[in-house]
Protein: Glucose-6-phosphate 1-dehydrogenase
Organism: Dyella dinghuensis
Amino acid sequence: QPVDAFDLVIFGGTGDLAVRKLLPALFHRYVDGQIPDGTRIIGVAREALDDEGYRQQITAGLNGAAAQNPEKFKAFLKLVTYRPLDARKDEGWDEFAKLIGQQPDHVRVFYLSTSPDLFVDICRRLGHYGLNKGESRVVMEKPIGRDLASANRINDDVGSVFNESQTFRIDHYLGKETVQNLLALRFGNALFEPLWNAEHIDHVQITVAETLGVGRRGSYYDNAGALRDMVQNHMLQLLCMVAMEPPSSLSPDAVRDEKLKVLHSLKPINDENAAQLTVRGQYRAGATEGQSVKGYIDELNEDSKNKIEKSQTETFVALKAEIGNWRWAGVPFYLRTGKRLAERVSEIVVAFKPVPHSIFHPSAGPLAQNRLVLRLQPDEGVKLWLTIKHPGPGGLRLRHVPLDMSFAEAFGVQQSDAYERLILDVVRGNPTLFMRRDEVEAAWRWAGPILAAWEDSGESPRPYTAGTWGPSASVALIERDGRTWNEDN
Ligand code: BG6
């Protein structure tokens, strides 16, 4: 439903996320008539820019969308202003508080798109000026902290200014259409749920592969790495959506309670088993999408003044997770994610067990597994791989073919970006698709020992050539179990 004019303050307003994702998402919503005039979008960062300078910066980030709709874009830019502020200095905060105070009836959203070390300073200042009162909300980007202890500190400190119902911990994967479609598929069809368990499912694979490198985000990324950047949040959230018990309703807490139980049921990966269950890698020079690209270290050095020679940060992770509960006993969940891989593809594959007995002559060909493939991007869609008879009189030959549903073809609409939906959910105050504090903690409780095991091992991430599927050890990780990564794209 439509929202009233609101105030959105983006801390980290000149950063990659703001320019590449948040502002384009807001523009698209504006074009669709979802953002009323009178709304104020205020970029905040340390750079000394004026409103015009900021508008120019964001125009570059909108990748031509502006050119397609110049009239609307001009009108949109009128909503956008800029304030230079440093979270650690007093200067400018009085004026900023006055500016926000000019619209006491607006819902206020403070979007923390900065490094997590600044969350607390920013929130304390917002609290000092009373900007946490009334219809005020704070949005925290992931990863929240870099381990359980730092996440707790941030949650406590932010929590001393904003209460839990005002706090929106964003994981934009939850706003992706296919992820929500998983709820519809699982709980809107009688077909899947009876099979959705260890008796019928052989294993699950979740792949989030990117062709991009670290780009401008080297200083953030080198402190994070793929496990903190992708696995602790996006990939575990996907795993939860696949594995959770049916919630009693779609109310925010009913869904989040079920996800939390899954996180609590993950079997620990630690010093004892990390070497068998995980693989981490770091890209070297190679080529993606037909272009030669630098290795990770050289890419980092492009963006930073202090040259580094070595980094232990992983740009690729593959791991085998298990959920210790009745539904999933013995069903591996293979997760893999990385930068500078062969293709950009994110998908969830649910692989079913084979039929118990084959009635076919060996010459009919092998019986393949049924696989349900949920494609998140690109080309969002759902495929269900079935065994059928090859048509014609030449005897019974088996073929493996997909029932194939592409969202673009079926609905003829361009998928909207996850942020478009999530930002407006914050304005509306709907937390269903956001992480509750206990989920973040449970995810860190599981991820922390993996990071510790890697550190304790003293080993470096395995090198892989940019444009490949990561270190060969990640293929071995799944092939050891007699399974293969999905290749039926
Ligand atoms: C972000 C990560 O959360 O997700 C990035 O910090 C990553 O490193 C991005 O590139 C991927 O998002 P998407 O929507 O492009 O798959």
